[in-house]
Amino acid sequence: MQPLVENISDTAKWVAFFRAEESERPDAVFHDPFARKLAGEKGEQIATAARFSRDNSWSFVSRTFLFDHYVTWHIREGYDTVINLAAGLDARPYRLELPANLKWVDVDLPPMISYKNKILREEKPKCQLRSISLDLADRTARRDLFKQLDAEARRALILTEGLVIYLTSDDAASLASDLSSQKSFLRWVFDLQSPSLLAMAQENMGSILKGSGAKFQFAPEEGEEFFKSYGWKSIESKSLLPTALKLNRLSDELKSYAEMGEPPGPPRPFPWSGVCLVENIE
Q1: How many CB atoms lie within 10 A of CB 46?
Q2: Whether residue 1 has pLDDT greater than 60
Q3: Domains in the chain and their CATH numbers?
Q4: Which of 95, 137, 161, 164 has the least C-beta neighbours within 10 A?
Q5: pLDDT tens, 98-155?
C-alpha cells in the first residue's frame, strides 16, 4: 500500500489542515483563509490518521501564533527581509498585514514551491515575495543562495518553522553555521523539542512517517544553547504549552498540568516544545 505520508512535503499539508481548523473557529487566534485549500484532502487524511498530533493540535496553533508574533514584532523593529527556509505551505506573505516594501523569500523543494504557487496563483501577496526552488540539503547551493540574499538584505529575520526536528545534529550545526556567517542575517526563529518529547513523537508518529524519508531526530539535550557554538545567542524561548493555555486551546486535563507551570530551562528533562528566538553573534 502507498504510505499516507509519501515524502516530507506531505507534512506541510498535514500542518496546514490544523491551521485551517483554527482559522474556521469563531474565536480564531489567527486567520489563514488559504490553509484549507493548501492542505487538500491529503492534509486532512494525515491529520485524521495521526491520532497523537490530532490530540495535540493545540501545539500547531501555538506554534503558528508565536511565529506570527515574531514576524510582526521584527517588522515593527525595522527588519526589511524575511527569509523563510523550508517554507512549506506558509501563507504569511498573503495573510499578514505586511509593508509593501518588505522583501519575503520562500525557499523549499521544487515540488513544494510549484504546488503552493499553483494553489495561490490568483492571490496577491502583501509584500515583495520571491519563491526559490532549492534543496537545502545541498550545502554548496544553499551557501551560494545565503550569500546572495545577504548582499541584498540590510536586516534579515530567518524562519525555519517545522524544520529542525527532521535534521541530524550535524545537519543542524552546519545550517546554523552557514546562517550565522551572513552579516545581515541578524535573528533566527525556529521551533524545538526536548529529548523526552522527541521520544514520545517517535513512538506515536513514527509509523505515519515510515517510508517517507522524513524522520523525527533532532532534540539536543542542551536545548537552544546547542546553537551558541555555531554563532547564535538565545534571546528568548516561548513554550507552546503555556501559550496554548493563554489561548484557551487545552483540554481540562492539560490545562491543570499547564497551570502548575514549567521549570526553567534549558536543559528540560520533561516533554517540552517551544519557539526559540536567537541572535547572530558572529
Answers
A1: 22
A2: no
A3: 10-280 (3.40.50.150)
A4: 137
A5: 999 999 999 999 999 999 999 999 999 999 999 999 999 999 999 999 999 999 999 9
Alpha-carbon distances, residue 147 vs 106, 178, 181, 264 (angstroms): 16, 9, 9, 37
Contact call for residues 161 and 91 (beta carbons, < 8 A): no
Does the global pTM surpass 0.90? yes
If phi > 0 it is left, if psi is from -120 to 50 it is alpha, else beta; for residue 96 that is: beta
The residue type at 198 = L
Inter-residue contact 280 to 153 (CB < 8 Å)? no
Place of cell 528568548: 236
Q: Are 64 and 92 in contact (CB under 8 A)?
A: no
For residue 93, what are the CA distances in angstroms to 32, 34, 90, 207?
A: 11, 11, 8, 33
- HEC letters along the chain: CCCCCCCCCHHHHHHHHHHHHHHCCCCCCCCCCCHHHHHHHHHHHHHHHCHHHHHCHHHHHHHHHHHHHHHHHHHHCCCCEEEEECCCCCCHHHHCCCCCCCEEEEEECHHHHHHHHHHCCCCCCCCEEEEEECCCCCHHHHHHHHHHHHHHCCCEEEEECCCHHHCCHHHHHHHHHHHHCCCCEEEEEEEEECHHHHHHHHHHHHHHHCCCCCCCCCCCCCHHHHHHHHCEEEEEEEEHHHHHHHCCCCCHHHHHHHHCCCCCCCCCCCCCEEEEEEEECC
176/94 Cα distance (integer angstroms): 28
